[in-house]
Amino acid sequence: MSLDLDGWRSKIDALNFKLVDLLNDRARCALEIAELKKKLGLPVHDPKRELEVLDKVSAHNGGPLTDEALQGIFRCIMAEHRKLEEQG
Asked: Cα–Cα distance between 54 and 73 in angstroms, integer?
């Protein structure tokens, strides 16, 4: 694909919008999970599950981002979604 600078920036903008939509979908799922955890008397924070998520992300990674980079991003995502769960 041969794009100029504006073309690449437009592509990045479109991808950013998709990421926002996906992150909000994930947040809605986290809020539903929080409700279930509350009903079951389970804690919001589940370190074992978070490690499973990080392992799955790494296993799915095909680059160019490193596993460490993706895990850092997902740690931030999970932390923000955990905040939502705790507020809910």
From this structure: 10
Sequence-ordered list of residues with C-beta below 8 angstroms from that of 88, at least 6 positions apart, any chain: 31, 34, 35
State pLDDT tens for residues 8-54. 999 999 999 999 999 999 999 999 999 999 999 999 889 999 999 99
What is the reported pTM? 0.87
Mapped onto helix, strand or coil, the DSSP state of residue 62 is: coil
At 34, which amino acid appears?
A
Give yes or no for a contact between 31 and 88, defined as CB atoms under 8 angstroms apart: yes
Q: What is the DSSP letter of 70?
A: H
Helix (H, G, I), strand (E, B) or coil at 64: coil
Q: C-alpha angle with apex 65: 20 to 72, nearest 5 degrees?
A: 65
Distance separating alpha carbons of residues 86 and 45, to the nearest angstrom: 9
Of 56, 54, 53, residue with least CA distance to 69? 54
